[in-house]
Amino acid sequence: MEPAPETAPMPPIEPLLTPEPVPAEPATPEPLPPRGVRRHHWIVRLTHWLNAIALTGLVASGLQIYEAFPHFGQKGNVYPVPNPFDMYVFPRWARLGGWLAGGLQWHFALAWIFLLSGAVYVAYLLASGEWRALLFRPRDIGPATQMQLYYLRLRREHPPQGKHNALQKGAYTFTIALGAISLLTGFAIYKPVQLWWLTALFGGYELARYWHFIAVWLFVAFTLVHVTLVFLVDPASIRSMITGWYRGRFPSHG
After folding, report:
1. What is the dihedral of CA 66, 69, 70, 72, to 10 degrees?
2. Do the domain assignments include residue 157?
3. Share of the chain above pLDDT 90, in %
4. How far is residue 58's CA from residue 51's CA, in Å, rounded to a whole number?
């Protein structure tokens, strides 16, 4: 009887379905140190609050000065410029100085604080290089639009940002320019004879006074929007402007 022929061993049966690789769990971001990240230099914090106090007093004393002649132009020749506050009497609590001379004294004193504090702040930005993180550039237009959509609740996710988002850069660049215009128009109406060329640059004494008045309300509008967004979007930034340390949603300095 012949032996049965040897059969070749069966190859191993491969599974029909290859198991999918288990994705690795995302790395847990490193927790912030107890104090957070260093965000604002003491010079930035000091000048910020000095400017806030000085600007509040400048607005209040400016309203007291405006009370003496709530028009733009000469008596009997009022300029036809848009002015919703023509002949409006601002409440006493909103004015500083009590009368014209008092308002002028407060205004001049606070203007020098505002000027010196602003000069120190700008000098620090230039010396430290932080102006690069604040200056609004053409490439920031797109990110600023996305940030505005987020604030209007038309975008769900907060756009990526560094120390300042693009909309904040635009606001800060605008306020620095607005501060310069306020100071220049202020000097134009403070010394219209000695600085006649500066007064003429703004269209004469009365128009320089008008542009100075407009700058005030632009500052007021910026302050209201700025404070509102701080409380709604990133209240942790208030502490950082006091202590210098930030521990909130946007710790990056990039």
Report:
1. -100
2. yes
3. 46
4. 10
